Amino acid sequence: DRSEQERLDRLGLVEKASLSQRNALQMEQATRQLQNEIQRGHQKERALEAELANSEVKIRDLERLFKEREEKFENLEGLLASQRERELEREREREKETSRDRERFSTSPAVKQLQALKQENQRLRANLEATQATVSRMGNEINQVRSEYQAVVEEFTGLGD
């Protein structure tokens, strides 16, 4: 009876040892899985940090580009304003010249005056066409700068979203 009890106790101990060994193996496997997950988490964290750093660089680049475009736009607006002022000054000078020409031609014979007026008319038309071409060209440049400026603004605001 006692030997039977010892045998049963040994069998119980062997079974407990086997169960403990299985538990230890399962715990080792779970530990390896957790370590793998931790490692993947660290890799993902490093990737996200790198992506964040790249995004910050892109934002700084876009801010710099935005500022450059804004300055360019302001410079072009200033240039356009000064160009318009020069054109107006030229137009005023042409008007004065035309007025002086009229006074001068009023004392000459009618035929010479007519020829001079025709020449003056041609010159003024040429000046007008040149001025219109300049104004059109400047308008196109302004529209282009505005489009570029708007694209930068949209790109910049798109990053904020």
Brief account:
The chain has 161 residues and is mainly α. The chain contains two helices and no strands. It has one domain.
Number of beta strands: 0
N-to-C SSE string, H for helix and E for strand: HH
Q: How can the largest sheet be summarized?
A: none
In total, how many domains does the architecture comprise?
A: 1
Oligomer: single chain
Kindly state the percentage of residues in helix.
over 70%
Shape: rod-shaped
Uncertain segments: none
Question: What would you report as the Rg, rounded to the nearest angstrom?
Answer: 44 Å
Total count of helical runs of at least 4 residues: 2
Structural class: mainly alpha
Arithmetic mean pLDDT: 88
The end-to-end span amounts to: 82 Å
Tell me the fraction of residues in β-strands, as a range.
under 5%
Structural overview:
It is a single chain. This protein is mainly alpha-helical and 161 residues long. It has one domain (2-160). Helix content is 97%, strand content 0%. It has two helices and no strands. It has helices at 2-106, 110-160. The longest helix has 105 residues, at 2-106. The protein is rod-shaped, with a radius of gyration of 44 Å. The two termini are 82 Å apart. The mean pLDDT is 88.
